Amino acid sequence: MRLSINAVTMGLGSALLVCVAHVHAGQEVSVGRVDVRLPGEDDAWQVYDLKGEGLRFAGSGVDFQQSGEWKVVVHRSANRVIDALLWFRANSSGKGRFSGVQYPGEQCEGARGVFAEGSEQGAGARSFQCLQVTVPHNVVAANNVNPQVKNLMAKEGWTWSPSMHAIAARQFSHSGAFVEVIAFVAPESLPAVDPAAEDQAGKDGVSAKSIRWGRLLQEAATDSVYSIRGNLPVPDLRLPAAHEKDPSATTR
After folding, report:
1. Which residues of 160-175 are buried (b: 16+ CB within 10 A; e: fewer)?
2. Is the pTM of this model over 0.70?
């Protein structure tokens, strides 16, 4: 049986229904079968659980619903300005419910100002991989942020950095197991690279350091899909130490 996923878009998924906020006490977050390891010091991140529909795999006249979990993680800056927000989606358990999933019609593409690279797709493609990295821009004004996530951040008292990269890493497997990570990161939060590497920047001015960080994120996402444990270490970020903890962050 040949199946394909629904079209992949740059923005956050639209199926987020209920959000519950809580403070995570350490650096590891469970998202479905995936264990995410966050960079930085302990208790530096605020975690929001998102409840929504599963991911539909459709094709050959048959639809399947793959259960999944969603979480949004925000770096806890003292002034509550978002310098890094990570959105994760992964299947709930196991290596995937199905066999023989194919992705013949999926394309990894980037519009102007977006670097994109992914797997070559053909009639019998057994997986789909896609990395997309944008130039810094106002991600809210550009409608890259799901309205429900945007409203949640406003309700919780967060404001967005005026210019951020949007970096998306996705991996879908033959069994239906999947991981999607969408990161909104301020340019100054990305680790620096050798100045000579900037000559290797992608199209339309996408920086070498954002592409390098995105590739590390994509590698981690891919490894997590095909590993037994599902570990996903987020690449290092240059985040300020949270010496002054957010006084409003309480367990909900």
Report:
1. bbeebbbbbbbbbbbb
2. yes
